[in-house]
User: What shape does this take?
Amino acid sequence: MNKAYEWRDAPQADFAVLGDPVNHSLSPRMHQAAYESLHMRHKYVALRVPVNELEEALEFLTKKAYRGVNLTLPLKETGARWAKRPDDFVRRVGSANSLNFLDGSAINTDAPGFIDTLPSLGLWPPTPVLLLGAGGAARALSVALEDAGHRLKIYNRTPDRAKKMIADLGLKAELMKEPNPEDVGLVLNTTSAAISDEAVPVQWYRANKKAIAYDISYGLEMTPFLFQAGLAGLKVVDGLEMLVAQGARSFEWWLGTAAPFDVMRQAVR
Ligand code: NDP
Assistant: This one.
């Protein structure tokens, strides 16, 4: 566990990750390592903010001269509504993970960060994808995947939520009654099932052995989803590279300078 402050006890700093819970976050370690390698004097901390206190916390941090924040579970939707200048993507998916207090702008670096990780996995040209989940991350990644030309099948434990997501976002995706990975090149887990040490009941026996199983959660050596995919013979990928890619994009957006990608990766690996 990393050190996290209650937001009312926030120390003087420049950037923070806000969430509830947030003590699992690797962002402070990653951003602090980046500043130090570039001899920047910025400070990045983790602050616990309950979702019903987010607006109050954001006003407080703005007055305390913080420059910006990252948002994690479960704050991204409320953060998108708070922003005075959300970009087009944030407006479309209703989820922001990076806020800039200087001008009230908001972007989502999860989606492009995730797309950044695909070419090195050989997932280009676009391949059919089975996407599991219908939460904030699923909303952002489904739009980014379709925009990049991937064909989507979507399964969620609560089917109505997936149905609503497809309708809200105008996706062309097929709604799946069962998590059937037949004929896809990527099985993408965007659920938070790993947090409660649970697997998603994917019908692995139907999967193409050349498909990739990608779990965007990180911090566990092996999530139940990846463990089962590995047993079924698939190549498995966790969410750490995506974490670094989205962090690097936030860094560059706030500071206008190239992120030290390798330093950031080393800090979390
Ligand atoms: P949300 O709370 O918005 O959504 C959670 C989703 O997970 C819902 O679809 C929910 O289904 C599903 N779910 C939760 N528990 C289970 C379970 N036991 N079995 C099956 N489905 C389950 O979360 P987010 O979308 O914001 O985040 C999801 C995950 O992605 C988190 O683990 C987060 O850490 C990770 N993440 C990683 C990033 C990275 O950089 N690597 C960036 C962003 C997120 P239902 O609708 O039925 O409740």
User: Anything to note?
Assistant: Residues 73-74, 110, 133-138, 156-158, 161, 190-193, 195-196, 198, 200, 216-218, 239, 242-243, 246 surround NDP (CB under 6 Å). The radius of gyration is 18 Å.
